[in-house]
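# step 3/5: fold
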Amino acid sequence: MIDFESHLTMLLDDVAASVHPHPDADSIFVPTVAAVPRQVHRFRPRSLVPVAAAGIVLLGGSAYAMERLTGDPSRTVTPAATPVPETTTGPPTSVVEPTTTSEPLVIEEVVTTSVAEPEIKPAVVPEPVEPITRPTVPHTEPATQATEPTAPPTEPTTETTDSTVPPTEPTVPPTAAPAVIEFRARLGTGGLANDPMTQGFYGTAQPGSAIRVASQYGVAETTAGPLGNWEATLVMPEVPAGATVAVRITSNTSDRVREFTLHRPGEAVPPVVAFTANAAQTTTDHTPPVNEYWGTSTAGATISITSDYGSVQVLSNGEGKWSARLEFPGAPLGVTFNVRITSSKGEAAFDFPLTPVAPG
């Protein structure tokens, strides 16, 4: 495309330099220029050859018309020895639509008449545009890419197991040991003044543990749930008012023992204990004479020990027991006297004779 445009430009320059019909005395043609109304004819060439030929003719006529219109000084044209009227027939004036989106150029038709008045309708073509010089890229041979040598395919290797090495057994992760839940017990809802007396307990232990709540007045048993929680209610009939009850709680999955002490409201009534009395000896060689006594009676009973040479009172304890040591100053040696023992909560009376003797 670049060579064709260069060649076409050279041809057009030669035509423009040689075609300048100026008035000459020897010339038989009298060129005249007349303005023709603007008429635009459009056509689309089907090949480049007719377009090139039409461009040569149109550019030649355009150069002549433009020179006459602008009034530039004419150049001398040397006619041939035998001038021959030259009639140039060209294609109808047309405008070649550019392929770009710019507005179409308007070309004015110019008619040149001679004596024979042949009508020439050259067309004004667009101003020559400087050809775009495309940078020439030196032709370089495509570089031959070095191909890496392909390694021969490796055959799959078959691993052989040494018969002397035993196969490794898959390791099974150890299962986590279940969490140990501490055995605990707490007091719940109490009914100590109820009849029968009741008391609630609750706590924690290993799931499924057997829990036992025991006292001298009753027993309760339960089992710890899946989360280790347990609860139980201890029912204790026949607990006297004011009595103190010991409760012991155990679990079959723990060595620990939980103990509680309960007290029934009200005034405690001691159990009735039979009144009894005992004396340590019947003779004494102590100076002054002395003897020891003991026995049983209802708890809180007053025990009275009396004689002609001395007396004393004691109280029986909560278990109904009592004891006393009594001296008898002024008792004569070898003379036997009587010691009587009574209880405020008993009707019986006990007499014990005592004889002082000389030491040795």
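# step 4/5: annotate
Residues 48-70 form the longest helix (23 residues).
# step 5/5: archive (pending)
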